[in-house]
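User: Assemble these into one structure.

Assistant: Restating your components, then the assembled model:
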Amino acid sequence: MLITSEVKKLPGVENVVVGMGTDYNLDSLKRLHLFQPEMSKATPSDLMLCVQAKDEKIADELLKTAEKMLTAKKSKTGRGEESKPHTLEKAFQGAPESNVVLISVPGAFDAREAEFALRHDKHVMMFSDNVSIEEELHLKELACKKGLLLMGPDCGTAIINNVPLAFANQVRRGPIGLVAASGTGLQEVTSIIHTLGSGISQAIGVGGRDLSEKVGGLMTILAVKALAHDDATKVLVLISKPPAETTLMKLYKELQNVKKPVVIYFIGADPRVIETEGHTAAANLEDAAIKACKLADVKKAGPLMPAKEIDGLAKKHSVKGKYLRALYSGGTLCDEAQRLLLSPLKEIHSNTPIKGARELKDVYQSKGHVILDLGDDLFTRGKAHPMIDPSYRQERLIQECSDPDTGLIILDVVLGYGSHLDMAGAMCEAIRQAGAKGKRRPVIAATICGTAEDLQGYEKQKQTLEEAGVVVFPSNVSLVKFVQATLTREAKK
Amino acid sequence: MNNLLKLFQSNISVINVGLPSFADDLKKQGVPVVTLDWRPPAGGNTKLLGLLDKVKRHQAKLGY
């Protein structure tokens, strides 16, 4: 809960947990040594306020403040607002011009609401992720029959007609249309395209399973067909994990009818096959943005940070501990880091290991080189996503600082709508806390995913990180190259 | 596909079902948005919900 991070900022507080009495939250309290025997009676419908402070008086004050914050929020939303419809049916009657339904309600109900919206000719974006693949197929078949978008399930990012939906960045309009089965991948590529000087016509998220054998790329194919006919789109970009073979064949067949250049980044796929099909293969997310810009309207587009500058920064920083500890909030960025670092670092552990990496047995305790996706279900059960709530990442950052084996910590700061308003500040607060506890300071580096137009202020976030001694990179790839240069140089010593 | 091409030429107007922060972000951009005061249908009882859906389908067939 966001209130946790707000209360943590108050003077005299050592730790705070505000959450429902779920099994996950009770386990977290045990891990943080905050568990009290009477808490075992808590149920998932009970709200728990746990505070650890310097003394009892401060703890009592903090509990009162937390209670005030909770009730203030309630009265704010309860008063003075016009009455809201309870059902989609009523909402459509009140706003017949509505064309997109954004769904983020718990599983068991989300598919039902999505179907209702599709049957009423509305496009749907499903942020909810608790939908079976059979339900997804059913919804996408219905959507395709009607020529409607069904973005998702588990779709966190889209930009339609220059409107960022859910987690998305403020980018200019332009000639590049994207279709992606990856949320942070889409954020990274659209942001870099903007920074390089081009812009986005449409950015359509399709959900991580769209190119699976079962779903058969239904939404990707519909979106590709539409972008191929869209006058504002001059170049197409496709981003996904490698599709299932049968789906890939269907997609390539469809792409034969597209008369516009297509840039493809199928994470981990063989680029030669893509090139043989006549498309442009990208080596990573930044490369996809560069190649799309070159094909569109920015002929001189190149890496946001030249290799020389990355090497220079790597030479300036020597690490004392042996290992990398990567604390990502973005799943695709975590995946990209693993792919690029697996060969140079040889052994990587992760909670979401790619092929060749090892599964981290205890996800709460790092061992060797670790690259974590803190947005994975394991860490988010009963809590907000780490792009919204920084509390666990702060805790983990302090923990990694205290491990003598940690040489380098890296993290992502994702800007844009939906995200925390000062993630850089929250991370720096944890760095300061680690320093105050006298813990040894490893090298800390970060990438900012976002644009100068984002509401958090790109330069402000960068400055905050740099003032705390964090080395900042403009893309995930440049950050990863810095890691590679730093750690391989240390290994040779 | 025509519906999708039509969307690309339209002003976006959103119905938000779930997280209020998504609606707040859209309002900040000046995008028209209606937020549903969403509650689990049939009080969250999936069995009862299935029966209600069955009644609705039957009513639709009869032209209600």
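The longest strand of chain A covers residues 406-414.
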